[in-house]
Design goal:
about 20% helix, alpha+beta, 2 domains, D-amino Acid Aminotransferase, Chain A, domain 2, binds 2-OXO-4-methylpentanoic acid, D-amino Acid Aminotransferase, Chain A, domain 1, binds pyridoxal-5'-phosphate
Length: about 350
Amino acid sequence: MKPNEVDFDNLTFSFTETKSMYVAKCKQNSEWESGEIVPFGNLSLSPAATVLNYGQGLFEGMKAYRWENGKIAMFRPERNARRAAKSCNRLSMPEIPEELFLDAVKKVVRDNSDYIPSTTQGALYVRPIIFGSGEGVGVAPSTEYMFIVYVSPVGPYFKGKLKPIKLVVTNDYHRAPLKGTGGVKAIGNYVPGMLPSGLAKKDGYAEVIYLDAAEEKYIEEVGAANFFAVKGKNLITPELTGSILPGVTRESVIKLARDKMGMEVEERRISVEEALEADEVFCAGTAAIVAPIGSINYKGEDLTFCDGEIGEVTNELYNYLTGIQFGKSKDDFGWMTEI
Ligand code: PLP
Ligand code: COI
């Protein structure tokens, strides 16, 4: 799609094809070759590729923002580069060097800069993927890998900016076990969530809240975002046990709450019962940003936190974070990278 054909004023969190993408390759037991920018288009893959047969792959997600002064900037892309390298390791893929990852991301954003929405319209979602492209029928790592970065202009992940979302706790499905792959961005972590999420949406909920797989007592995550509860001056978020994805937004929210708002942040297990007694609850992620949770359904009962009025802490954290991301507030922590 040409940039002038994009309906920038009505963007949702969905895919819009842009001009180009970045492609790099790597053979097993060797180094990643530096890749190149090519026109966006389909790939040719063997039906025996390990990504198609065994799900050997990962993705990352970050955003590029167009500031009102015309500059383009990304939020902490080096954190995503580091997480991608960790995910490669867990998924038996050759580790992507941080510099290669960042260089690729910057090149794609620059080459597709006409697709970056304005501050009021949204952001350019940047999606790096790494996967086994070589053939393999035995369950073993691929002989060849591809690293691709593509982009898409996006609007809000949850309908309505800062509109409180309705969530439901699932007792029927778990997202990830301890010692599994929940702590990395394995592509295989996401398809099992489509069924519970789809069922929840049919019932009018925006997403599900997953509980821990061992005791089914403690909150893990909200679909593809990290969970937070506010109790007075304390901010509580589930500790990173291995089954929870270490979100870049999570880490940033913790820092803002501690250093800018003087809150006491507790990274620890939080039971549903305790969360239901919180003053405010919200979830956070690249796509979700900071999303206020209006109500939580647990075992058939809806508990309402806020109807229309957003909690003070949630609101302040949203403003701090988006202020930095959109270049409106001082970037005291050096989080933004100009492209
Ligand atoms: N949890 C899961 C399962 C996710 O997929 C994501 C999104 O990447 C997050 C949390 C939030 O992470 P981040 O803030 O790095 O986007
Ligand atoms: C992100 O926030 O970048 C995510 O990865 C969520 C995604 C699964 C839509």
